[in-house]
From TrEMBL:
Organism whose genome encodes this protein: Arboricoccus pini
Example of a GO biological process term: iron coordination entity transport
Subcellular location: Cell envelope
GO CC terms: outer membrane-bounded periplasmic space
Transmembrane stretches, start-end: none
Keyword hit for Signal: yes
Major localisation: other
Protein's name in the database: Iron complex transport system substrate-binding protein
Residue ranges occupied by any Fe/B12 periplasmic-binding domain in the UniProt entry: 15-275
Top-level taxon of the source organism: Bacteria
């Protein structure tokens, strides 16, 4: 859902503060540099994301931004997620125009929502051509990856991120990772519980039933990876025992179209590697 204020047709926002990372990476991909962003250093900490320009100012936490500093920046537009809007909008409205755009709402379609967010932001920022080009790029990338995966069409895939020796986060049907898996012609094998953000914590014993799935293993920390690798239960899981696994880098998984474009080749390469065993 997108809530758009009356910005005026003659005024294209130039001084933009963005509190949501999925929106931040989208406007950057559209060629617009935000004035300020929530926790830019933490975003850049994730592997496989582009380094942010040093000119972007840190406005504090996404949920508790520095309102005085934001006001001093004199922005003409503030972008945030709708859930942030519920607690912050009445205060942010005193600083600048506010637009809330939601990619993750638990409906299982964040990739489609991210595409719509791209169109919305393109129109809002006078970057319609760049938005169309970005969406064409993600379409072409998906088509290229599907072609590489032609022999694996319909392959069941689990994407997990170890947390400790007994638990993993698993990509469920509500998340961007699941949407990307399906967009590439694969099948997300997980049919258990789901969460708003698309990753659900489960005990590793819950994975024992997925005998015919490949497993793509993301890394949260090196410690969690080492802990789970030493678990006898983990080593006994059918995909692990058979060597039908592949490692993924420590990727950011709650993004929008730029994140989807980074995930597509990772999932493609991982799937082909896991199939080779």
């Amino acid at each position: 859902m997108t809530l758009l204020p009356e910005l005026g047709r003659s005024a294209t926002p130039e001084r933009i503060v963005v509190l949501d990372w999925s929106l931040a990476e989208t406007i950057l991909a559209l060629g617009r540099l935000p004035l300020g962003m929530a926790q830019p250093a933490e975003y850049s900490h994730w592997e496989n994301v582009p380094q942010l320009p040093s000119a972007i100012l840190d406005v504090g936490l996404a949920t508790q931004p520095n309102l005085e500093f934001m006001q001093s920046l004199e922005p003409d537009l503030i972008l945030l997620d709708e859930r942030q809007s519920a607690n912050l909008r009445h205060r942010l409205d005193r600083i600048a125009k506010v637009v809330s755009i939601t990619v993750y709402n638990g409906d299982g379609q964040p990739l489609a929502a991210a595409e719509e967010a791209t169109r919305t932001l393109g129109g809002l920022l006078g970057a319609e051509t760049a938005a169309q080009a970005l969406l064409a790029d993600v379409h072409d990338m998906a088509a290229g990856c599907r072609a590489r995966l032609d022999s694996a069409t319909g392959q069941k895939v689990l994407c997990v991120i170890p947390q400790d020796e007994r638990h993993v986060w698993i990509a469920d049907r509500n998340g961007l990772v699941s949407n990307v898996i399906e967009r590439l012609g694969l099948k997300n094998a997980w049919h258990g519980s789901s969460s708003l953000w698309g990753f659900t914590q489960v005990g590793i014993e819950a994975l024992a039933a997925y005998e015919d799935a490949l497993m793509l293993i993301g890394r949260f920390t090196s410690k969690s990876a080492d802990e789970i690798d030493s678990s006898p239960i983990w080593r006994a899981l059918p995909p692990v025992r058979a060597g039908r696994t592949a490692s993924l880098p420590r990727f950011w998984y709650f993004g929008a179209i730029p994140t989807a474009m980074r995930l597509m080749p990772l999932i493609t390469d991982g799937t082909l590697s896991a199939r080779r065993g």
